[in-house]
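Sanity check

After download, print the first record. It should look like this:
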Amino acid sequence: MELVPSHLRNTADFLTSLRNTSPEQRRGLTFFSADVEALYTNIEGLTAVRDVIEFAKEHRSSLKLYGLKLSDLQKILEVNLENSYFIYNRKVYRQLVGLFMGWRPAPILATIRMYMLEKRSIYTDLRLQVKIPFYRRFYDDGGALTNNSRSAQLLCRRIEEEDEDHHIRLTVDYPEPGQYTPFLNTEVKIEPDGSINTRLYRKPQKKLLTLNYNSHHPLGVKTATVANLYTTAESVSSSKVNTDYSANIIDQLLLNNGYDERVLAKMKEKNSTNKVKSKKKSKKKNKQHDHVRTSCLKLPFLSDTCTAKIKRAAEQCFLPLKIVTTPGKRLKDMLTSSRPLDRTECPRGDSCRTCEALRAATGNNNVNCTMSNVIYEIYCNMLNCPDFYDGETGRPLHDRFNEHYLTANNPTAASYENKPLAKHYREKHPDCSRPALSVKILEKANNTINRKIREARTIAKNKPTLNDRNELAELQQFLV
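Expected C-alpha cells:
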C-alpha cells in the first residue's frame, strides 16, 4: 500500500502531506472532499485483479513474493474471488458482484483499482487544464485542492470516465467560501494567503458516545481514553483557537458520558503530570529491570481496589509478576453468536464413543465431542466404582478421551504401564473385558497457561482419586 502515491494511512499522514505543499501552491485554492459511492460493491473483481498484477509488474523489485510468480498470485486472487461466501438469515450465499467486505485482499484491490483510474486521468489527462497540487485518498474518501467547484467536478468526472465498467461514482463536497471541509476526523480550510486551518470534526449523525465513566472498566483505561481523545484533538488542530474548539468537542462528549467537570480537571492534570514523569522515569526503569524476567499474569477485572491489593501482594512476596486485568464476559458474548452455523459436528455420528460417554455423564443428548481447550473429568462406571480422573487438553476432546479409553482397554500393555486409567483397571478391575467410562466437560479455557491453572485449581478442589502424585506436584507451579 505504501507504493500507491495517493493512498493515505491515517489522519496524521493526511495532515503531513497537506502541510508539505507550499503556501504558494495553496494560495487561491480550496480543499474539497469526494466520496466513492459503495466502493467495494462497485468494483469488478477480475478487473481489480488485472490492475493489481499490472501494478505489481511496475514495482516488481520492491515486492516479496516468497517464491511465487505473478501468475500464481493472479490465480490465487481469482480463485478466492470466485469462492467468496457469506451467511445471511442462516443461509449461505456466494458473492457474485463486487469485492467481498470481509475478504482481506479487498482493501488492497480497491485501493490499487482506484489509483489506476487516477493514474490514467488526473495524473496524465491534459483536458483538466488545471494542475492539481494535492490529491490524496483514504480508501473511499478522497481530498484535493482546486480553484473552484467546476474544476472539482471535472476532476471527479475524469476519474469516473476511466472506469470501463461504468460503476464508479464520486460525490463531491465543495465548501462555501470561508467554510471548513470535513475530511476523516478533521475539518480543513485554506485561507486566501495559502495558510492551513484544521480542527477536530465529528459527524453530526455520530452519537455522543464513548467509554462511560460509570462502566465496569479499570480507572486507568478510562484515564487513557480521555488522554487519547484530548491528544487527538490537539494533534489535528492548527492553532490555539482551533485547539480550544477541538477540546470543547471532547468536553461535551465526555460530559455526556458521566465525566463531570471536576473529574475531567483531575484527569487532565494527572495526564499532564504523567507525561513529564514518564520521560524522566522511562530510562531509569529500563536500566533497573533489564536483568529481571517478569511473567504476565492475566486476571479478570473486578475492581480497581481488588487489582491494587493483588499487585501489592505480589510486590510484598517479591513475585516477578506483571498483573494485567482483562475485561470479563459481556451479556452480548454470552447470549449471542455472530457465527451460528460454525458449530463443528461430530465426524463419527451415532458411533462416537466420546459422545456416548458425554451423554452418560450429563444425561444430555445435545453434546459436542469436538470442543477443544477444555478441563474434563472422567468417571469409572464399573460396579459403582467411585474413582475419577481430572485432566485438560488443547485438542478436540474426542482425541484425548480415546487415548484414555485405549489405556483402560489395554491395561497390561507395556507402553501404558504408568498411565492412571491403565493402573486403575489393572489393579481394581483385572477381569474387565471392556472399560465403562463417562466424561464431563467442567470448564473451557482460551490458552495453555489458563488451562493449566484451571486444571490445578479443579484438582485441588475435587481431589480426584486417579491423578498420581507426580502429576499433582507438577501442577502446583500453576497456582499462585
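If your output differs, re-run the checksum step. Summary of this record's structure: The mean pLDDT is 87.
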